[in-house]
TrEMBL record:
Organism: Thermococcus cleftensis (strain DSM 27260 / KACC 17922 / CL1)
Matches recorded under InterPro entries: KaiC-like_dom, KaiC_dom, P-loop_NTPase
Domain KaiC as annotated: residue spans: 8-249
PANTHER family according to UniProt: UPF0273 PROTEIN TM_0370 (PTHR43637)
Protein name (record): KaiC domain-containing protein
Keyword NADP: no
Keyword field contains Hydrolase: no
Residue intervals passing through the bilayer: none
CDD domains for this protein: KaiC-like
Gene3D superfamilies documented for this protein: P-loop containing nucleotide triphosphate hydrolases
């Protein structure tokens, strides 16, 4: 008799979302969250890591490549998320990948140097993940990796290396990227991100009654049954909230 394989799930910490993916992300998977500017990608990723520490006791790492760690902490307080509290408890680590690039001093515990190559960049993230025994990771964002490393023409190789090391670490990861024209089928900046990820989530806007409404679409999620419908979501005082039974666009 063949024993049915059960996929271990990781709760997203995003109200309503896990109902769409059979209870959570497959453990150890890499998920791409893509969308235009202002669609909520950073909030989605940080919420995944923060709620992991707050609700499930799972340590996590945030690699911020678009804003300084101190700015990220301040912005997330708007949702009542005290990142520093869990940093002090060793349940959360923020890697500052901005200060050195723009030539600003940093007092952060974890700081990426300004001249790291791809291999050193990935090795540093690996060390921090192991240092706090992280189970969750978010890297915000892929275009900033290319900018930082001055290796945009080699982004495919870097992303393949990144995917390999993430699978080796066994963390459940979210990578964010820009979707230049999602309405025309372009859901990532380089056209390779969606192929290295095991899951792809699109966050976007739709005009409805002369107003922009947010929606979420799961384009891919391996080992998971999911709908291909567009579900409404909003970003309120508690973060990202998805409405699986709401009006489908």
């Amino acid at each position: 008799m063949i024993t049915k394989y059960t996929v271990k799930r990781v709760k997203s910490g995003i109200p309503g979302f896990d109902d769409l993916i059979e209870g959570g992300f497959p453990s150890g998977t890499t998920v791409l969250v893509t969308g235009p500017t202002g669609s909520g990608k950073t909030t989605f990723g940080v919420q995944f890591v923060y709620k992991g520490a707050e609700l499930y006791g799972e340590p996590g790492v945030i690699v911020t490549l678009e804003e300084r760690a101190q700015d990220l902490r301040r912005e997330m307080l708007a949702f009542g998320w005290d990142l520093e509290k869990y940093e002090k408890e060793g349940k959360l680590a923020i890697i500052d990948g901005v200060s050195a690039v723009v030539g600003l001093p940093s007092e952060e515990q974890y700081v990426l140097e300004g001249n790291l190559n791809a291999e050193d960049f990935l090795r540093y993230i690996y060390r921090v993940v192991k240092a706090i025994d992280a189970k969750r990771l978010v890297i915000d964002s892929i275009p900033s990796i290319a900018f930082r490393l001055r290796k945009e023409n080699e982004i495919r190789e870097v992303l393949l290396q990144l995917n390999t090391i993430l699978l080796e670490m066994g963390v459940t990861s979210i990578l964010t990227t820009e979707a230049p024209e999602p309405g025309r089928g372009r859901i990532s900046r380089y056209g390779i991100e969606e192929y290295i990820a095991r899951g792809v989530i699109l966050l976007d806007f739709i005009e409805k009654e002369v107003e922009l409404k947010r929606y979420l679409l799961i384009r891919k999620m391996r080992e998971t049954k999911h709908s291909m419908k567009k579900y409404p979501f909003e970003i309120n005082e508690e973060g990202v909230v998805v409405y699986p039974s709401g009006e489908v666009y």
